[in-house]
Design goal:
Shape: globular
Strand content: 25-35%
CATH superfamily: Dynein light chain 2a, cytoplasmic
Strand order of the largest sheet: 2-1-5-4-3
Structural class: alpha+beta
Order of helices and strands: HEEHEEEH
Helix content: 25-40%
Largest sheet: 5 strands, antiparallel
Number of domains: 1
Distance between the termini: 5 Å
Number of strands: 5
CATH architecture: 2-Layer Sandwich
Radius of gyration: 13 Å
């Protein structure tokens, strides 16, 4: 059974990824892989609100539940993805061109994250 930290550490395969963190609905971090000096607690708290906004937009536009929210900035990319009904994955990258790689990794490792969360 892989530990959460081990699964999150797989995101280091993309050198521009500064943070991969699991966050609960209240904005509390569960586990993270981080390189750099980001404030993980602050990011976790804000990210939970970001996913709630995405869910509200999906409902207001009758598009359904959020599968993944991609935020692209001049200095990088942030991806928010629900893992379970209570927990989401937040990935922060310094390279705006890394969206495809991050989306691939988040989909690839989601089953492992779910398994580690369930103790499997």
């Amino acid at each position: 059974m892989p530990a959460l930290k081990d699964v999150l550490s797989k995101f280091k395969a993309v050198s521009s990824i500064d943070l991969a963190v699991l966050v609960d609905n209240d904005g509390m971090q569960i586990e993270n892989y981080s390189r750099g000096n980001l404030d993980v607690d602050q990011i976790s708290g804000v990210a939970s609100t970001g996913l709630q906004i995405s869910e509200a937009l999906g409902g207001a536009t009758e598009r359904g539940e959020t599968r993944q929210a991609v935020l692209e900035y001049a200095g990088g990319t942030i991806i928010l993805e629900p893992v379970t009904g209570e927990i989401m994955l937040v990935v922060v990258s310094s390279d705006p061109k890394s969206i495809g790689k991050i989306r691939y990794l988040s989909k690839r490792y989601k089953p492992e994250l779910v398994g580690a969360l369930n103790g499997q």
